[in-house]
Amino acid sequence: MLVFDDEVVSLDLGGPPDAPLRPAVRARGSSVPVLRPGATRFVVAYGSNASPLRLRDKDLTGQGAVLLPARVRGWVAAFEARRTGYGAVPLTLVPSPGAITDTWVLGLPPELLPRLDRSEGRVPGGPPVEREPDDADHRRAPPGTYQLGRVGDVEVADHFLLPDALAYLPGPWTQVQVVGDSWRTWPEHDQAAAAAHVDGGGEARPAPPVGDPVLGDWPETPLLPRR
Q1: How far apart are CA 217 and CA 220, in angstroms?
Q2: Cross-strand bridge partners of residue 161
């Protein structure tokens, strides 16, 4: 799908190799921009970054934001032990050998990546030494909340492959909810259960550290046709 301003538009994925995301037509009748995979930057999306409404709130849809279904192997989405400024319990990815997680990838033009980074609390030069208090702007996470890391090859929409895909992974202060010896994960547990766990002071432990975070500017993220 393409999220353009406040509208969600279906995409045809059967275009030519240089532009496989074919232009769509808005319900209002005018053309919409469709991002070319060679220029677009893609990241695994879960939680707020997979929500058209939250993408609009983050001011990321004015040039068209692409959301495509994706399958990630070896990672699960786990609930953190905190609430965001707008009240939800956020998700983060943690390694889980053998796991298969169906989620989304988000595609944006490069000029919007700094805005996306700010909304996720990513500091391109690495996490700050000391964590700052929550930003008054609820569209943003505190600096150092997340960092970019690689999660391996990701299958996209049964048509494409994102090799060595990027995702926002836990920062150094991230605490993840625990049930017994297991992470409290989505979709096995819902938002209400995750919130009750936080409010009741449920068990949590630090997220696994990111071994090789991506610092500086985003690298290219080629969306390749699957053979």
Answers
A1: 10
A2: 155, 224
Looking up residue 104, the CATH number of its domain turns out to be 3.10.490
Sole residue written with tokens 């696994």: 208
Which alpha helices (DSSP H) does 19-145 contain, by range? 52-57, 113-120
Strands 41-45 and 7-9: unpaired
Contact (CB, 8 A) for 14 and 20 = yes
**Structural domain that includes position 13:** 2-74+96-170+211-225
- CA separation for the pair 119, 139 (Å, rounded): 6
DSSP-assigned letter for residue 5: T
For every one of its 227 residues, what pLDDT tens digit does the chain have, with 9 covering 90 and above?
888 887 888 877 766 555 566 655 655 555 566 666 568 899 999 888 988 988 998 999 888 889 999 999 999 999 999 888 778 899 999 999 999 999 999 999 999 999 999 989 898 887 776 665 554 444 567 788 899 999 999 999 988 899 999 999 998 888 999 998 899 998 888 899 999 999 999 999 999 989 889 999 999 998 888 76
Peptide bond between residue 187 and the one before it cis (omega within 30 degrees of 0): yes
For the chain, how many structural domains are there in total? Answer: 1
pTM of the model: 0.87
Residue 206 lies in a domain: no
Tokens of residue 24, six digits: 């769509």
Look at residue 193 and tell me if it is in a domain. no
Cα–Cα distance, 142 to 134 (Å, whole number): 5
The DSSP secondary-structure symbol of 216 reads S
